[in-house]
Amino acid sequence: MSGPVKDTSVSSEQGAISWFDLVKDLIGTAILTMLILTPIVTFKTTMNQGVLFIEDRWVQSLLLTAAVVIGRLLLHLFVWHKPPSTAAAKPVVAKAPLSESLAKYVAPAMLAIAIVLPFVLHQVPSWDKRGIDFMITILIYIMLGWGLNIVVGLAGLLDLGYVAFYAVGAYAYALLSTIYLPLWFGPGVVPWAFYIILPISGLLAATWGVILGFPVLRLRGDYLAIVTLAFGEMIRLVLINWFSFTNGPQGINVPKPTFFGLPFKDEPGGFAAFFGIPHDRIYSYIFLYYVILVLALITYFATNRLRRLPIGRAWEALREDEVACRSLGINTTTTKLTAFAIGAMFGGFAGCFFAARQGFVSPESFVYIESAMILAIVVLGGLGSQIGIVFSAIVIMGAFELFREFGAMGHAVQDGLMYVLPDAVVSGIGSLFTGTFGALYGLLPDAMRNSLAGATTGMDPIQFRMLAVGLAMVLMMRFRPRGLVTRRQPTVFLKERKSVSSDLVAEGHG
Amino acid sequence: MEYFLQQLINGLTLGSIYGLIAIGYTMVYGIIGMINFAHGDVFMVGSVVSFIVILGLGITGGSGSFMIILALALVVIIAMLIASVYNWTIERVAYRPLRGSFRLAPLISAIGMSIVLQEFVRIAQEGRPKPIQAVITGKHELLHRLTEGGEFIVTISNMQILIIISTLALMAIFTMIIQRTSLGRAQRACEQDQKMASLLGIDVDRTISITFILGAALAAFAGMMFFLYYNVTDFFIGFLAGIKAFTAAVLGGIGSIPGAMLGGMVIGLIEVMWSAYFSVEYKDVAAFTVLVIVLIFMPQGLLGKPEVEKV
Amino acid sequence: MQDWSKDPELRVQHLTMRFGGLTAIGDLSFDAGRKQITALIGPNGAGKTTVFNCITGFYKPTEGMINLRHADGTEFMLERMDDYIITQKAKVARTFQNIRLFSGMTLLENLMVAQHNMLMKASSYTIGGIFGSGKFKRAENEALERCKYWLNKVNLMDRADDPAGDLPYGAQRRLEIARAMCTGPRLLCLDEPAAGLNPRESDELNKLLLSIRDDHNMAILLIEHDMSVVMGISDHIVVLDYGRKIADGTPAQIKVDPAVIRAYLGVEEDEDPGENIVVAAAPAKVAKVSVPRVVVQKRVAKKPVVKKGGRK
Q1: Is A303 near chain C, with CB under 8 Å?
Q2: Cβ neighbours for A422, distance < 8 A, ≥ 6 positions apart
Q3: Which has more pLDDT, A61 or A197?
Q4: Which residues in B lie closer than 8 A to residue C192 (C-beta atoms)?
Q5: For the packed helices C107-114 and A310-320, what is the interaxial angle rounded to 10 degrees?
Q6: CA triple A114-A117-A118, angle to 5 deg
Q7: Whether residue C89 is found in the same domain as residue C109
Q8: Phi-psi label, residue C47: left if phi above 0, alpha if psi -120 to 50, beta otherwise
């Protein structure tokens, strides 16, 4: 081990580490990791017929410790002690204009992709419904991200309870479409419920935005974050406990939206029958996809427009310096409330759509973690940047979905290989793999082999996805705290539009 | 009246636990000005670790009292050690590199860390609640009255006595540390002005680390007591307890250690009284309402100092 | 009666501001004349910025009246108005001692934000703006013209599209003044506009302020330590010490006023060499110094620390 270490200490003049320090560091890491892992990973408590047992998993925790130590060693060797020249030589300034010239084409290109996407996915038989459904999910989160961006990114008010407005929209649809609209206007109105309720849900959410926004106007920073979190949780707890109104944790089944009155059902008067085409559930997916695409685009263009109006500029000024705003005659109370209300309104639209698309709502969908996820999307995108939010929603939700798909995808790749390559090759590769691992596996002692088998079974990748989101949030803040898109576009200019580096942009008081 | 007295005892017990967690919030907020969102989950880790150790040692309510005391002493030490290691690592990995970064960064990092801890424990130990038989049993009747309305009894359990007394003892030790030792002085100096403190030769990084360790040790103790009191724990207890303890910290006046304890007692009492007299379902809503009201109308808390807006 | 008291733009009467037990301003009365530059001077901690904060509504005074009367006769009682309404209705604009620009926004945007109320009205409170009404477009062009005018006036036209945070210190001060002027004020309150400026820059500042007074018929209220600025352009000087007015008059009168000399030069104070060290240990404050200031610093250091807390 000392060989390569010596090499690095010779090759790098600065930041070199002696092998003694390195070993000390690694031993420290190992001890620390063992302390962290030992109680919780090593001793697994399982319930068996009502009695708790402890089952030890030394192998796993030793393997994990080894992984951490090796990872740290690699970081020491290849990342942390490189000669400084390589890091400093990177031209930082040259990057901005390039990305800016590209940025002009990104939005239209993405719009074009978004428009044709369902037709492309339609051609992939095994992935059409799931693919489009997944795209719908991403679009919902993009829309929520854009909505929250008004509050957090533009007005600089840190809102950790955004999911409350999403819930208001969803429950507005659920309650109005199942109970109140039929009660008031008769059951004939139900096919049109979505179109009627959509604007109402936005207004209701905006009202809630004002109601919840009003008391927190004086708060800033962490306090604002925790109060909004509390509001979000309160709304969820009320939804759970107010059984007579919301049906509690069991949730409500709601009607699916129709194509302007035509239900997506295999029946006369249904969508397919009306247009004289064979019934296929895919039409419903495609329809929903375009609905959410339109809603998201409305959010996008409305926000863009608002930014160029005095109200939007006041939001950004509020984020930069509230006291200065007041000295310029800006009513910060109404400015904050409009930001809350408009952000909430888009959350309400998204919630209404979500309820209609799921066909079911329950308080389970509106937990605090959802708020944290949406906030993570906005922050990873780069506060205030709308295009950045599209990327980050795709990255985060994509990664999220990947965990679900891991198993399935493995099979898909295998199937694909089977299809392309001759059988012999595939089985050859397969036996090579099993051969190598089998041989290694055989070398392990019995006890270890058993625990390894135990370790890998019952570990479903889907289990790890929230863990990954949490880790991503931490790493993101460490390495790219300003998000993916780090430049702010001015809203007005005389000669040329020069983007502003986010190092200068304040992040608001709340 | 008897009913009220009983609830008072229950409330003070719960309040002690909240108070112990709240100290961690209040100290960290005082010194680096951030809500350590993961602190509630450190409490949870302390609780889960003490559960595992108790299960591993195989002590139950039936073990001899000498064995129980010996075992619990061991549990306390292990839980405090492990929770401290967790909080120290969290500070090193997730907060320290962000010092001087933009203001939202540590908060978001802390939210991420909270998710990581919860998920880590959930994956490693499964999500189901972990119940055990009560280890510390026995209770004392304080009042016994027979009236026409029925039998009224006020009791205090050994566990409740243990929680309240050990909390008071820890508080006393802790206040001594803050007021009398050089560590406490360094800590108060860092709260005032970190740059100046470091110019005067205080190791700011080390002081912050120790703050995190102390906070975690108290939270772990609270976690163990919580577990022994309710005889059940799981990966999610940190979220609610954390928010309530934070409320306690703000109510008492952020940065003030007696305030945190006082706030904890008040929150514990409110929660217990609300469940007893109004509705159990809405007890968390009541706690959140207190949080909102306190933050909006008295952000300086009971024992904190008011802040004048600087222009 | 002095000429500033005949038809004052601003009349402050018996203004008192207490923070807890500390009296930051005690029974202060003065007038600021129309189309005049009134300087508010005094040693550090004398309560000058507190007076500003009371006038602009950031603090509510404990006692006293602050009356503002426009040339057309409309009167405002500033002590009863909220800060943003004072700017909006009473047309008082201010700058800050520690510059408060929107550093992530461009110069042009900074000036556009200052015209928020006018533009809000023109955009029919956003509704008309969303659909691009003609009225809003006209108002926006008008606003842009005003921005250009002020950018030219403060010599920052060529940097209009740069972020405000990129500007050098002196330019930031000028931009802040331009931004305040874009709100269309009748009274401009400047908190140490010359702090940190080099002699050439403070000369330019003098010209700018005179031009604002003469070409725009403005009343200016000025807090300043730089005596070349104060003596060079003020029509009227009010001197504060420990929250009380100790002198009030023309620059010529103030220069020879015994109370002012005592406050600034500390005649009655016995010299203690130890305190000079205290002064030297506050480099940030000594940096922007003229000779009398050093002495001022010493006097502040002599008072108990409580005196300083809560002020500003």
Answers
A1: no
A2: none
A3: A197
A4: none
A5: 110
A6: 120
A7: no
A8: left
Residue A409 lies in a domain: no
Mean pLDDT of chain C: 78
In this structure, are A160 and A218 located in the same domain?
Answer: yes
Whole-angstrom distance, CA of residue A325 vs CA of residue C87? 10
pLDDT of residue A344: 94
Angle at CA of residue A478, ends A474 and A483, nearest 5°: 90
How do residues B198-216 score in pLDDT, each as one tens digit? Answer: 888 888 888 899 999 999 9
B204-230 helix and B158-180 helix, angle to the nearest 10 degrees: 170
| Same structural domain, C195 and C81 | yes
In B, minimum Cα distance to C98 occurs at B311
Judge if C144 and C227 occupy the same domain.
no
CA distance A410 to A413: 5
A11 DSSP β-pair partners: none
> ipTM of this model?
0.86
Residue B39, pLDDT > 90, answer yes
Q: CA nearest C151 in A: which residue?
A: A494
* For chain A, percent of residues with pLDDT exceeding 70: 78
Please tell me the predicted confidence (pLDDT) of residue C290.
Answer: 39
| C312 and chain B in contact, CB less than 8 A | yes
- CB pair distance less than 8 Å for A324 and C101: yes
If you ran DSSP here, which 8-state letter would residue A253 be given? E
| Distance from the B11 Cα atom to the nearest Cα atom in chain A, whole angstroms | 22
Cβ-count burial C135-157 (b if 16+ within 10 Å, e if not): ebeebbeebbebbeebbebbebb
CA distance C154 to chain B (A): 25
**Domain of C241?**
1-101+184-312
Q: Total domain count for chain A?
A: 2
Give the model confidence (pLDDT) of A390-433 as tens digits: 888 888 888 777 766 655 555 555 555 555 555 555 556 556 55
Cα separation, B139 vs B156, whole angstroms? 6
B308 vs A502, which has greater pLDDT? A502
Q: Are A319 and A508 in contact (CB under 8 A)?
A: yes
Check whether residue A73 and residue A169 sit in a common domain.
no
B289 touches chain A (CB under 8 A): yes
A488: in domain: no
Gap between the Cα atoms of C276 and C278, Å rounded: 5
Both tokens assigned to B71: 């075992």
Q: Supply the range of the domain harboring residue A55.
A: 2-84
For A248, nearest residue in chain B (alpha carbons)? B281
Who among B52, B104, B289 is closest to A43 (CB)?
B52
Give the H/E segment covering residue C219.
Answer: strand C219-223
Q: Residue A469 is nearest to which of B56, B115, B295, comparing CB atoms?
A: B115
* pLDDT tens per residue, range C1-58: 567 777 788 888 888 888 877 888 888 888 888 888 888 888 877 788 888 888 888 8
- Contact at CB, C53 and B310, closer than 8 angstroms: no
